[in-house]
Specification:
Shape of chain C: globular
Structural class of chain A: alpha+beta
Oligomer: heterotrimer
CATH class of the largest domain in chain C: Alpha Beta
Helix content of chain C: 25-40%
Strand content of chain C: 25-35%
Number of domains of chain C: 2
Structural class of chain C: alpha/beta
Shape of chain A: globular
Distance between the termini of chain A: 28 Å
Strand content of chain A: 25-35%
Number of domains of chain A: 1
Radius of gyration of chain A: 14 Å
Number of strands of chain A: 6
CATH topology of chain A: Folate-binding fold
Chains: A alpha+beta, B alpha+beta, C alpha/beta
Order of helices and strands of chain C: HEHEEHHEHEHEEHEEEEHEEEEHEEEHH
CATH architecture of chain A: 2-Layer Sandwich
Helix content of chain A: 10-25%
Radius of gyration of chain C: 21 Å
Number of helices of chain C: 11
Order of helices and strands of chain A: EEEHEEEH
Chain lengths: ~110, ~1000, ~425
């Protein structure tokens, strides 16, 4: 039973107030992309045991999507940040580095 | 015999006698008794039968760890199986029966198993019952099922209610012994919000039974004072009869409060499930005494030493007149002393240690009790009751030195901290060699949402067995918890505890040490599941070396007590058999709940009508009053048909179709989703959401649109109306409103966050009625208001105005093929508008219709239905709907996916109409076989039916289906399964069966 | 191998069961095997078993980081059925179900397959149509199922409430030869048979790296040393992505927690397995008498084998409505396992971008019932390079858009 903190409205609340939305920072590939690019975008997943970036929506709250960094092995959250971004904020990356030196996830480290 | 003593019993109120029944026998107890103490006071030592061998079983413990004494409790809607007598408070009229025997507790035919025990070792059923093959299902399994199980299944619906309770606290203390109370008091003095639970109805735990002193007063006085102080503090929530049931991630805890189990006639919920978020949790859950493994340790009258003491001190009940105490530690001496002090006889204390007993042993000797060091019990004599014990050397192989007559045995193998709650969420344990116990490893506590430790064990639960250490630990843990929860601990010291000095324990896992197989196969580890020392040794010998394998192979610890008495003893035996250290063997996983909690409590208030809320349209009440046969659609209920008296549902549907096509029908379409999409980029956004081009739609016009997911599959459809330059109203399917709204938000927030668009779900703001049929215009004209002529509002146009005095938005759209207006009015006006239409429509033959009529009419017209023609694997191209896919757009959701090889294949099944040759209706879901079998021996298939109905308009069965290259095969006849092994022939035809040119809807 | 039988038990009883041999050996790993299977769960052990039995390949090691059968094989609700809609699913699940029928005799180990019947309740019009469609499909697939009336449902399950105020029972899809089996015994029976064929079941042996050369698999590194192989099968439900990352490729899989619970045991009161998908709950009664209840999956990636409690609440609530008597039973234990979920929720039995490496994964919430069929098919794929049963379950189907979607009929949970 997770506790999350919505970075949009600031509410810290029960998991049941949120909806999990899968892996974060996926780049959309549309018409004109190669089969491999499209398959990668739609299906291939990091699914890390450890540091993971993911999407959540505060569905029973402010309704906003946001992103989170979480350890799938301990369920620890390293932080929450708005969905309107292309990479995790530095302070969250620093927090992860403190706990998991040398971590990487897709192109981030 | 066991009986009530004339003195003692700190918990019973002898002024208040209570009557109850056990197996039809009327018995007497007192207020404050548990069912266990009351049964024992009535000399009811035999209370149940074991799971496998149906051995006679008595009460072993005094709390939630009891493995044997489970009864059927109550009657009718209050009947409950497997109720533990040690945690059942006595009340007047209590009705209990014993379990798992036939025909009676005293004489159980199943007990024959005990004579075959030698043939039924651990895992025997894996090795036999294999031949003949059908016998497992028809003979062996029914027999095994019948003899397994414990209590009876309830027969009636639960007559009680339950509730859930949310609670937030800074520090949660679980356990109301002296450690819990000291920790709670310490934490509370910091001003933080503190909650403390005690699972029984009395506070103080063991210390008050064992006569410890705190701050110079008897522990009992200190406990009373502390409870009173806590009850008076505003920042403290204090609850007895409430168990900490489970600790979950991020500080989520379940509390299980038993509100009326002890007074079932009282109104109100029976159980309350507390859903708690705690910043810090202190588990002050004490310890459980371990049995010793000697032959016959399961015979009624053999009891945990501390439990025996509890019955004497707490309830004034003696288990026997002559009690032999057997131990490997000093604590059990307290039992001997308590018994002698109560005027009972203790013929001997059998101490397996060769030396090391402390002052308690001296005290016992001083009371004239014989103490035998280095000895053990070779065997307990007796069947349904202890008759005596045979004594041997602990270091030997069980040669009997002496027999002692007795009617009770008090055993103590040492104490195991209750580490369950610590462990539920990942807390790790360490093996404490000196005390022979697993205790929490404070460096590996469960961690929370920020990676911080959030559980601490305190007192005995943390491996401290002496009063002073317990209190010091409790206060230290409380100070640390306060700090971790962001508070400031108060300066000050722990209360000073004192009790008798104790000598060291010496672990004894088998008695005697060299017990031969004949004794080991009578030495029980798990009493309820009948697992013996020999079973665990057999498991090890057969290669079940992992503690999880041994558990599962022998069923050790899998009974309703979840191994509270047996786990440590079992894994010590396993370790010994594998010749490895106990920590190397490790423990099995501790899973919630600590002791079983009721399904009723887990479900809470959500029963019957409250199980799931029903969404209702403004006209729902009218439907209910007018024969609606409802069907669930999402969370809504929609009328399937309006059935009149004397009609079948089918008759009603046929009537509704005919009337709508001939006269006038009304459909409550309020459940259709209505999303308002607004902003300068709304058109561009909808161009991405729909396969169609929406940005070119003119204000005042409607367009039917299709929506696909990124995988290319159809997910929704509906009519989009452009309200003004910046505003669109998108209709969705009934089930789609929330889903599609969320879908749009996802794309707007996460992908095209710079696009200027807002979306809102206005579904419930409007009631919507489809006015359908040749008389549709007439009824609206009669009601008066806006001009609804073809010239004023053409097909696929919409208009705002007034109808019959109602503010209305009128859409000229049709899902039936008839002249049709869908009219939205404010939800608050919906019922009045509906009534007005019915009244005005009377002369035009108005009849409301339901969803089945809607389905038939759309099928007659060849319109697709999301969920029928689509199933999550169908793309618009399969439905020949290329006309709805804009060729001009570079991109829309699903476009790239539809370019993949399998999606673009010419071999896909495509939509066609189907007409049976004999006019019958093809069954729902029918498949069309093709010649031959595939590589897996399955019949090849070439299509399937997606919608199939009897058309009252055409007087025959009509259907749509997806058929391999269907549109190229017009006129072909193929077969469909009828479901009974036969087939029906159908011709591939155009999917539009009625009014192919659309003349009727366009008048 | 000494055969198990009632006579063997009797003979051993006379000498106090001192003569039983180990069910499986506990060998040290060799330097090289023809085939290494990573993961000694049901699927991995079954694959090894059929490699030996059907193809004579016995120079096989099955590596297990924990204890054999300790993953989802030992954590599921033991339901066995094959009433699937899509042809490829029905084929492999029916193969599995039919192998379960004779598994006890084949393995000389009583896995207690109990063909007591499985019913899936239809509680909406949409579900009725969906299950009728499945019944029609099954009739052409050689899977015996039928759609039954509410009255028949009530006869088969007297404790069910068919007139629930929210979702009355409108019928059910019934597979009479579906049922349950003893989950641990399936793993143990296969392990014993594999060991008997000379294969090495090596527990507490964790793979830390996969070695390749020129795109071809060479072997694995483990905490017990390096082991070479010609072929490698990755059959590690819940941890597939972790393993494939070692081999340098991604898979269309996410790992989530799935939960289950049991009640305290009671005397027999329900003889069949009931699944109620509209309200999300399913229940059967074990031979011990416990009501075995399956819950839902979490929406977020998770490797902890713990789930969120609200799923338990939702499931129990639904079952209290469906079977009112259980309200007065008590939950004895709840637990979780980690399941792989693929892009279409159907499994992957496939070659991989690494030559000689195969994966069997993504069974989601429905793997137990498939064990023997999955092992049979996987062994054929690994031995011959292709199998009609695995043909459609390739990991490349997602890129082609060729899905095997079982949720289409009526949101059928596994």
């Amino acid at each position: 039973m997770l506790i999350l903190e919505c970075p949009c409205c600031g509410v810290k609340s029960e998991e049941t107030e949120f909806h999990a939305g899968g892996e974060a920072h996926l780049k959309r590939f549309g018409p004109g992309s190669t089969d491999a690019e499209f398959e990668g975008y739609l299906f291939m997943r990091e699914n890390k045991r450890g540091v993971h970036f993911e999407r959540w929506r505060h569905v029973n709250g402010c309704g906003k999507w946001f992103l989170a960094a979480r350890d799938t092995n301990t369920l620890e959250f390293f932080g929450f940040y708005p969905a309107q971004t292309h990479e995790p904020p530095q302070d969250i990356k620093d927090k992860i580095s403190a706990k998991h030196p040398g971590w990487s996830w897709r192109e981030f480290q | 015999m066991s009986t009530r003593l004339s003195n003692g019993g700190r918990l019973v109120n002898k002024a208040k006698p209570v009557e109850f029944q056990f197996n039809g026998k009327r018995m007497k107890g007192y207020e404050g008794d548990t069912l266990a103490s009351a049964l024992l006071a009535n000399d009811q030592m035999l209370v149940g039968r074991s799971f496998k061998y149906h051995r006679p079983r008595g009460i072993v413990a005094s709390g939630g760890e009891e493995p044997n004494a489970l009864v059927n409790l109550g009657q009718g809607g209050k009947f409950e199986p497997n109720q533990r007598v040690t945690t059942t408070e006595l009340f007047d009229g209590l009705y209990a029966t014993s379990q798992n025997h036939w025909p009676s507790l005293e004489f159980d035919v199943g007990a024959i198993n005990t004579h075959f025990a030698r043939f039924l070792p651990a895992g025997f059923y894996y090795k036999m019952f294999m031949f003949p093959r059908p016998f497992w299902k028809h003979v062996y399994e029914p027999f095994i099922r019948q003899s397994a199980g414990l209590g009876k299944a309830p027969k009636e619906r639960d007559s009680d209610t339950y509730e859930h309770f949310y609670h937030f606290t800074d520090v949660l203390v679980i356990g109301g012994g002296i450690a819990g109370l000291a920790a709670a008091l310490e934490a509370a003095q910091s001003g933080l919000k503190v909650t403390i639970f005690e699972q029984t109805h009395h506070w103080g735990g063991r210390a008050v039974v064992d006569g410890a002193e705190i701050d110079g007063k008897p522990a009992d006085d200190w406990v009373k004072d502390t409870v009173q102080t806590l009850e008076g503090m505003e920042n403290v929530t204090i609850r007895a009869r409430t168990m900490g049931a489970g600790v979950y991630d991020h500080g989520y805890v379940l509390g299980y409060e038993r509100l009326t189990d002890h007074c079932p006639d009282q109104d109100g919920p029976r159980h309350r499930l507390w859903r708690i978020r705690a910043t810090q949790i202190i588990t002050a859950t004490g310890a459980i005494e371990r049995p010793l493994s000697f032959a016959g340790n399961d015979i009624p009258g053999v009891m945990l030493a501390a439990a025996l003491r509890d019955y004497v001190v707490n309830w004034g009940v003696s288990i026997g007149d002559r009690t032999v105490v057997v131990t490997n530690n000093d604590d059990a001496y307290r039992t001997a002393i308590a018994l002698v002090d109560a005027g009972l006889s203790v013929p001997a204390i059998i101490d397996a240690r060769t030396d090391g007993a402390g002052p308690l042993a001296d005290a016992a000797r001083a009371k004239g009790i014989r103490v035998e060091m280095g000895k053990g019990i070779a065997k307990v004599k007796g069947g349904k009751r202890v008759e005596g014990v045979a004594i041997c050397l602990q270091a030997g192989e069980g040669a009997v030195i002496e027999e002692i007559k007795c009617d009770a045995v008090a055993m103590s193998g040492g104490w195991s901290p209750v580490v369950h709650l610590w462990s539920h969420c990942g807390g790790k344990l360490i093996w404490d060699e000196a005390q022979a116990m697993f205790r929490p490893d404070p460096s590996r506590a469960p961690t929370g949402d920020k990676g911080q430790p959030f559980v601490a064990a305190a007192g005995t639960a943390n491996g401290n067995l002496r009063t002073a250490a317990v209190l010091e630990d409790a206060v230290a843990q409380a100070k640390a918890a306060v700090k971790a929860a962001g508070g400031k601990p108060k300066a000050g010291k722990a209360p000073a505890g004192s009790d008798a000095e104790e000598g060291a324990i010496s672990p004894v896992w088998l008695m005697p040490q060299g017990a031969p197989i004949q004794l080991r196969m009578k030495s029980w580890l798990d009493f309820q599941n009948d697992v013996k020392v020999s079973d665990v040794q057999l498991a090890a010998r057969e290669g079940f070396e992992s503690v999880e394998h041994a558990k599962r192979y022998t069923t050790l610890g899998m009974a309703t007590d979840q191994g509270k008495l047996s786990n440590i003893n079992g894994l010590a035996i396993l370790s010994d058999a594998l010749d490895q250290a106990i920590p190397q063997t490790g423990t099995t996983t501790f899973r919630p709940p600590y002791t079983p909690i009721s399904m009723g409590a887990i479900g809470g208030e959500a029963r019957d009508e409250l199980f799931q809320p029903i969404r209702k349209t403004p006209m729902h009440g009218w439907h209910e009053a007018n024969g609606a046969d409802f069907e669930p659609v999402g969370h809504w209920r929609r009328p399937y048909a309006f059935v009149r008296s004397g009609e079948s549902v089918h008759d009603a549907v046929m009537r509704e179709v005919k009337n709508t096509r001939r006269n006038l029908g009304l459909l409550d379409a309020s459940t259709l989703g209505k999303l308002i999409v607004k902003g300068p980029d709304a058109g561009k956004f909808l161009d991405m959401m729909y396969t169609n081009m929406m940005s070119t739609l003119k204000p005042g016009k409607c367009r039917y649109g299709l929506m696909c997911n990124e995988n290319g599959f159809l997910i929704d459809d509906g009519v989009v109306a452009r309200i003004d330059e910046d505003t669109f109203l998108c209709h969705t399917t009934t089930g789609g409103a929330e889903r599609i709204h969320a879908w749009m938000e996802d794309w707007l927030q996460c992908e095209w966050w710079d696009w200027k668009v807002y979306v809102t779900n206005a579904t419930e703001q409007f009631a919507q009625v489809a006015v359908v049929g040749p008389n549709a215009r007439k009824v609206l004209e009669k009601l008066g208001g806006m001009d609804v002529s073809k010239e004023s509002i053409a097909f696929m146009e919409w208009k705002d105005g007034q109808i019959g005095g109602f503010n209305a938005r009128v859409y000229r759209i049709s899902f039936s093929g008839e002249l049709s207006y869908e009219i939205a009015v404010p939800a608050s006006q919906g019922r009045a508008f509906w009534d007005a239409l019915l009244a005005a429509g009377e002369e035009f033959g108005v009849m409301p219709y339901g969803t089945e009529c809607l389905h038939i009419m759309r099928a007659e017209k060849g319109f697709i239905m999301i969920g029928d023609e689509t199933d999550g694997t169908v793309i618009p191209q399969d439905l020949n709907m290329e006309w709805a896919i804009s060729k001009k757009k570079e991109d829309y959701l699903g476009k790239r996916a539809q370019e993949r090889s399998y999606m673009a294949s010419p071999d896909r099944w495509k939509l066609v109409g189907l007409e049976t040759l004999d006019g019958s209706v093809i069954p729902d879901g029918a498949y069309a076989p093709a010649p031959g079998d595939n590589a897996n021996g399955q019949r090849n298939v070439q299509g399937r039916v997606t919608s199939t109905y009897f058309s009252p308009t055409l007087g025959r069965g009509i259907a749509m289906g997806l058929v391999h290259k269907g549109p190229d095969r017009m006129g072909d006849v193929i077969e469909f399964t009828k479901g009974d092994g036969t087939f029906v022939k159908a011709k591939i035809v155009d999917q539009v069966f009625y009014d192919k040119d659309g003349e009727k809807q366009n008048v | 191998m000494k055969r198990y039988s009632v006579f063997a038990v009797a003979r051993e009883a006379l000498r106090y069961h001192t003569g039983w041999e180990r069910a499986w050996r506990s060998p040290e790993p060799k330097k090289k095997y023809d085939v290494i299977i990573v993961g000694a769960g049901g699927h991995g052990l079954a694959t090894a078993y059929y490699l030996g039995k059907n193809f004579g390949i016995t120079n096989v090691a099955i590596l297990e980081k924990g204890w054999l059968g300790g993953g989802n094989t030992g954590r599921n609700t033991t339901i066995i059925r094959s009433n699937y809609l899509q042809d490829p699913s029905a084929a492999i699940y029916e193969k599995a179900r039919s192998l379960y029928e004779t598994m006890s005799q084949d393995l000389n180990y009583n896995v207690m397959f109990s063909p007591r019947g499985v019913m899936m309740l239809a509680q909406t019009q949409h579900e009725i149509r969906g299950y009728q469609r499945t019944a029609h499909a099954n009739s052409l697939q050689g899977v015996k199922t039928e759609f039954i009336t509410p009255q028949r449902v009530k006869e088969l399950v007297p404790i069910i409430n068919i007139d629930g105020p929210r979702y009355p029972v409108l019928g059910a899809l019934w597979q009479a030869r579906g049922g349950t089996a003893r989950h641990d015994a399936v793993a143990w029976g296969y392990a014993r048979a594999c060991s008997d064929m000379g294969m090495d079941v090596i527990q507490k042996c964790e793979v830390t790296a996969i070695r390749t050369e020129g795109g071809k698999v060479k072997g694995v590194d483990t905490n017990r040393g390096s082991i070479d192989c010609d072929k490698l099968g990755g059959i590690v439900a819940g941890n597939t992505s972790v393993l494939t990352e070692m081999a340098g490729f991604r898979v269309p899989i996410e790992s989530v927690a799935l939960q289950a619970l049991v009640s305290e045991p009671i005397k027999p009161c329900m003889d069949v397995v009931v699944m109620a998908n509209t309200v999300h709950g399913y229940m059967s009664q074990s031979d011990k008498g416990e009501m075995v209840i399956g819950g839902g999956t979490d929406g977020f990636n998770n490797y902890t084998q713990r789930g969120s409690f609200h799923h338990i609440e939702e499931t129990v609530r639904a079952l209290n409505e469906t079977f009112p008597i259980i309200s007065r039973l008590k939950m004895l234990r709840q637990w979780g396992g980690i399941v792989d979920v693929t892009g279409d929720r159907s499994p992957i039995l496939s070659k991989t971008p690494v030559e000689g490496m195969f994966i069997n994964a993504g069974w989601g919430t429905g793997g137990f019932k498939a064990i023997p069929g999955s092992g049979w098919a996987m062994a054929e794929l690994m031995a011959k390079g292709h199998s009609p049963l695995t043909e459609e379950f390739s990991m490349w189907r997602f890129g082609e858009g060729k899905f095997i979607d079982e949720s289409v009929a009526a949101g059928v949970a596994h």
